[in-house]
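Our consortium's second objective concerns turning raw sequence data into structural hypotheses that experimental partners can test. To show how far this objective has progressed, the report includes one record in full. It was chosen at random from the queue rather than selected for favorable results. The single chain below, 158 residues long, was entered without modification.
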Amino acid sequence: MYRAVVGAAGLAGAVVGAAGCSVGEGAPEGWKVMRGGSVALAHPKVWEELRPSEGSADAGAQASAVLRGAGGRQVGEITVRPGGATRRGVRPRPLTIDGRPATEVGYVERVADGSRNRAVEIATTDSRGRPVLVRVTGPDVDGWPTELRKIINSIDVS
């Protein structure tokens, strides 16, 4: 697990490693813990966890959860999947999760309805050296970068 300090640019921040933390360490009281493969992370209760076969946008996901907005429209997603690389064309930031090297990329993307989503992808390896990727997206609105960072801070990889 790691800790990040969010800077004025929202997702850009200085990252400091911290080994030996438990799942949810960076998350508020009452959040749910989601597990997928060797990864566990915490998220707010309003996120709806899906079984991998329930149609995550990310084929091959070991775990996923979605955040729904007005009319049930999906406005955010968390996916945990084996392997995978972070988005190309975005400068990765090195960090450490549970004593292992990892990379983080953060970016803003346009979605089908023309709105914008903030996204963060974390790539690392588990204790057996297998690559894992965690991707978290959500609406580009006030308050979301803070919640996004709390989800990312809660990641634990075994």
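The partners drew two points from this record. DSSP finds one helix and twelve strands in the chain. The first strand starts at residue 2 and ends at 6. Both points have been shared with the crystallography group to help prioritize constructs.
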